[in-house]
Write a structure and sequence with these properties.
By secondary structure, the protein is of the alpha+beta class. The chain has one domain: ECO RV Endonuclease, Chain A (3-Layer(aba) Sandwich), CATH 3.40.600. Helices cover about 40% and strands about 20% of the residues. It has a 6-stranded mixed beta sheet. Strand 7 and strand 8 form a beta hairpin. Helix 2 runs antiparallel to helix 3. It starts with a helix and ends with a helix.
C-alpha cells in the first residue's frame, strides 16, 4: 500500500512539473516586445491616484493580447489572468526586478490592520519590469507562500533570482520598434466617456 501511494505521489508530482514546464514555455513565447512597447507608450499617463486602477486594466489587457488570446484577463479577487488552467496574479513596477535579479519587496495584500491568513488565490505570480531593463519572470505559489511575511499592514515577499522562472532574457529585452503612438490613451478614454455621457441625453 505504501509503495502504491508513493507511486501516485511521484506521478502527480511529475504531472505538475510537466504542466509548469508547459506554462513557462508558453508564456516565454508571448510577444513580449509588444508588451514592453505598450509600457513604453503608456509611460506616466495613468500614474495619478484616480487612474492607477486603469493602468492595471491596460497592462492585463496587453498581456491577454500578447498571448494571442491564449490567456484570459478575468480580474478576479486574488488573481488577474487564467492561462492553461492556472491562475496568474500580476505584479508590475518600474524596477520590481532589481539589477541582481532578485525582486524588490512585493506587496501581495493590504490587511488594513486586520490579521488575516495568507490563503492561496493564485498558482503563479507574474512579475514584470515596466521600464528598462525589460524583464518578466514567474514565481510559483509555493515559493511566494514560503517567503511571505507581514510588514505593518501589508503582506509582502521578496523572491530571489534562483527561485524565479525567467520568461525573457535576464539582461532584459530591447524594444525592436521603438515608435510611440501620437495619441494619448488618457485623452482617448476621456473622449470616450464624454461621448458615452452625451449619448445618454
Amino acid at each position: 500500500m505504501i509503495i502504491t501511494d508513493n507511486i501516485k505521489v511521484i506521478t502527480i508530482y511529475k504531472q505538475l512539473m510537466e504542466h509548469e514546464d508547459q506554462i513557462i514555455a508558453g508564456m516565454s513565447s508571448w510577444n513580449w516586445n509588444l508588451f514592453f512597447q505598450v509600457c513604453n507608450d503608456l509611460g506616466s499617463q495613468f500614474n495619478q491616484p484616480s487612474w492607477r486602477m486603469m493602468k492595471g486594466e491596460v497592462i492585463c489587457m496587453a498581456l491577454e493580447e500578447i498571448s494571442n488570446n491564449s490567456s484570459k484577463y478575468v480580474d478576479e479577487i486574488g488573481y488577474d489572468l487564467e492561462y492553461m488552467g492556472s491562475k496568474i496574479e500580476v505584479k508590475t513596477e518600474k524596477k520590481i526586478i532589481k539589477k541582481n535579479l532578485d525582486t524588490k519587496s512585493i506587496q501581495l495584500k493590504n490587511t488594513r490592520g486586520v490579521i488575516q491568513n495568507f490563503n492561496k488565490t493564485f498558482d503563479y505570480l507574474l512579475i514584470i519590469n515596466t521600464e528598462e531593463p525589460y524583464v518578466a519572470a514567474l514565481a510559483t505559489w509555493e515559493e511566494v507562500n514560503k517567503k511571505h511575511q507581514l510588514k505593518g499592514d501589508q503582506i509582502q515577499c521578496i523572491i530571489e533570482s534562483e527561485n524565479l522562472k525567467f520568461l525573457t532574457k535576464k539582461s532584459g529585452l530591447k524594444i525592436i520598434n521603438n515608435t510611440k503612438s501620437n495619441d494619448s490613451l488618457k485623452e482617448y478614454m476621456r473622449d470616450g466617456i464624454k461621448k458615452w455621457i452625451r449619448d445618454i441625453k
